[in-house]
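Are you able to produce any protein sequence you like plus the matching backbone structure tokens because I've never seen that pairing?
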Amino acid sequence: MEASEKRHIFLTGTRGAGKSALFSQLAAFPCLTTFAVKGEGVYLKEGGHTMRIGVFDEALPGTENKMRPVAEGFAQGILALERLAQADSPWVGVDEVGYLETEAYQTAFLRLLEQKRVLAVVRKQDTPFLKGLLERDDAFVVDLDRNDVGCVIMASGLGRRFGGNKLMATLGGKPIVQWGIDAAKDVFSKMVVVTRHEDVAALCEVQGIHVVLHDLPYRSDTVRLGLEALGDVSHCLFLPGDQPFVTAQSLWALVLAAQNTDCIWRLGGKSPAVFPRWTFAELKDLPQGKGGSVLISRYGARTMPAVERELLDVDTQEALAQIKGKNESPLI
């Protein structure tokens, strides 16, 4: 958003693209949400208010969109939008804007865009209203069908300071490397774990996660092998396998920033970092033992804000003991 100077964020994509999952990660403010009950109807929910806006009708043609609009529900929905406009927050959320809306509800939604900054899920369908929303000059549009950002989880460290393979050490009931895998697995179009450790490779294989097992000595080898394994992607994020506190929310933020700019981004000015395609040739030809910081020094990078503990890594037994002593569980 900072880079684009837009006012609103619209998430779109085909069914199953993850629009609502991303919305829930980003929406920390008052929201109007939509839910469906199979074979029954579609409802709006805002605070303690629930409104039926669609009723299932088997007689309608086609195989999808078998819902008839309920005008009375949308009348209540307009009042819900008006309540959002009065919320004590500069941002509000609407999940989703779809094909059932009445003209009066559409007008009320457009009025909300003038009163607040809006995060909205916009159904991908060929209607004038929905197309018009996605073509607005003030809208930062995230099309999840075009997410072709890859992720390399860097899991090749020898753990000399730790005294062994730290990636398989237990934290919060699972291996340290699993925290990064869980945070990243629903964010990226492709993901690969690059490791020297057979136990890490086995952990990935059981879960059906693409893994590259190697015995090459340098960090530059891990970077090259990861990029080669990903194949054709627009950007690549490199996530250290020993940073268990990195959240899916921060990874999504890096993805969105990367897709809408042509520069390198880092979380909190450190790792993880996401690189655009124009850097790949140089990343594959890094000096022996070096990582992406070579290119960051050469070209610079923008910084995505982070919660401080997201930047913590587990380098030593003492660091792990200190984390466990605080009785903190990583947030994903």
